[in-house]
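hey
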C-alpha cells in the first residue's frame, strides 16, 4: 500500500527533537511577524478610515490589513533562504543520517553536527538557496512531462489534474529529499548529484506518486485537525473584535495551523518520503533516457549541470 513505516517516521522525528524545537521557534516567530504586520495594517487602516466615518474605518482596516499581511509574506519569502539553510537542510540531513544507521549527538550539538554536514556540501547560503530553486523548477517541469505522457488516454484530463495536484503537494518535500541525496553523495559536485537524484525520482514516478498520495492525505488530515482545534479560540477572538475585523481571528487560526504544520507535520512527511525514495531507488542508476528527457523539458535541470565549479559548492573551488 505504501513503502514507508509510520513508526519509523515518528522515530526519526523524535530522535531529531532539537531540530523540531528549532522549527517551532522559527515558525512561531514567523506567525508573530505575520500577525504583527496584519495588526499594524489594520490599526493604520482603521485610523485613516476613521477620518471619514465608521464604515470607512472598517474598509480601511481591511484593505491596509491585507496589505500588511502581503508585505510580511513577501519578507518571509526572502528570509526563507536562511530558514532552508539553518533549519530545513540541517534537519533533513540529520534524519537521512539516522535512516542510514549513523549516530548523531543529542541536544544543540546535533544541530551543529548536521549543519556542518550541510556546509561541507554548500559553501554559502545563496548556493543552497539557488540550487533549491532549480530543483523546484525541475519538478514543475516534471509535472508537464506527466501531462504529455498521459494526454492520449481517454479521460486523462482528470488523471493529469490529479497527478499535478499530488506532485504539487510533494513539491515542498521533493527538494528536501534531493538535498538529502546531495549530502549523501559526498565527493560528487552538488549539481551533478542533484541531477542524478532528480532522474531517479522521475524514473520511479509511479511508486513515489503513490506514496505521495498517502503522505498528502496524512498531511491534510493532521493539518485540518490542528486547524479545527485552533478554530475555537479564533472564533472567541473574532467575537471580541468589531464588525469586519472579526476575520482577524481566522487569520490567527490559519497562521498558527500553518506554523504547527511546518514545525511538526512536515518533518513526518519528509521522514516518510525519505523512506519511500530509498525503497524505490535502491540499487538503481540514473536512466540516460530520463536524463535527456529532463534536459529537454527543463532549463532549471540543465542549469544544475552547467553551473561554474565555484557555484557548485565544492570545497577548494570558491
Amino acid at each position: 500500500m505504501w513503502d514507508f513505516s509510520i513508526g519509523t517516521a515518528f522515530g526519526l522525528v523524535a530522535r531529531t527533537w532539537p531540530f523540531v524545537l528549532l522549527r517551532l521557534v522559527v515558525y512561531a516567530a514567523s506567525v508573530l511577524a505575520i500577525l504583527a504586520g496584519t495588526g499594524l495594517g489594520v490599526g493604520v487602516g482603521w485610523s485613516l478610515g476613521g477620518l471619514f466615518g465608521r464604515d470607512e474605518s472598517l474598509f480601511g482596516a481591511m484593505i491596509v490589513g491585507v496589505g500588511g499581511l502581503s508585505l510580511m509574506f513577501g519578507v518571509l519569502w526572502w528570509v526563507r533562504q536562511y530558514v532552508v539553510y539553518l533549519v530545513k537542510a540541517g534537519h533533513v540531513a540529520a534524519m537521512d543520517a539516522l535512516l542510514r544507521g549513523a549516530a548523531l549527538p543529542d541536544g544543540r550539538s546535533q544541530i551543529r553536527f548536521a549543519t556542518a554536514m550541510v556546509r561541507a556540501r554548500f559553501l554559502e547560503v545563496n548556493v543552497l538557496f539557488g540550487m533549491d530553486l532549480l530543483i523546484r523548477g525541475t519538478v514543475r517541469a516534471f509535472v508537464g512531462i506527466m501531462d504529455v505522457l498521459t494526454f492520449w488516454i481517454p479521460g486523462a484530463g482528470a488523471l493529469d489534474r490529479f497527478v499535478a495536484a499530488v506532485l504539487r503537494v510533494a513539491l515542498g518535500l521533493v527538494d528536501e529529499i534531493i538535498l538529502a541525496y546531495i549530502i549523501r553523495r559526498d565527493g560528487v559536485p552538488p549539481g551533478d548529484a542533484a541531477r542524478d537524484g532528480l532522474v531517479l525520482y522521475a524514473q520511479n514516478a509511479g511508486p513515489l506518486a503513490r506514496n505521495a498520495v498517502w503522505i498528502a492525505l496524512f498531511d491534510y488530515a493532521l493539518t485540518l485537525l490542528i486547524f479545527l482545534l485552533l478554530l475555537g479560540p479564533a472564533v472567541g477572538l473574532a467575537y471580541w473584535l468589531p464588525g469586519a475585523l472579526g476575520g482577524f481571528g481566522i487569520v490567527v487560526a490559519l497562521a498558527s495551523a500553518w506554523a504547527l504544520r511546518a514545525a511538526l507535520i512536515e518533518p513526518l512527511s519528509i521522514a516518510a518520503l525519505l523512506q519511500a525514495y530509498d525503497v524505490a531507488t535502491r540499487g538503481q542508476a540514473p536512466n540516460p533516457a530520463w536524463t535527456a528527457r529532463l534536459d529537454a523539458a527543463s532549463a532549471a535541470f540543465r542549469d544544475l549541470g552547467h553551473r561554474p565549479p565555484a557555484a557548485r559548492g565544492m570545497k577548494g573551488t570558491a
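The two ends are 46 Å apart (CA to CA). Residues 20 and 263 are 6 Å apart (CA to CA).
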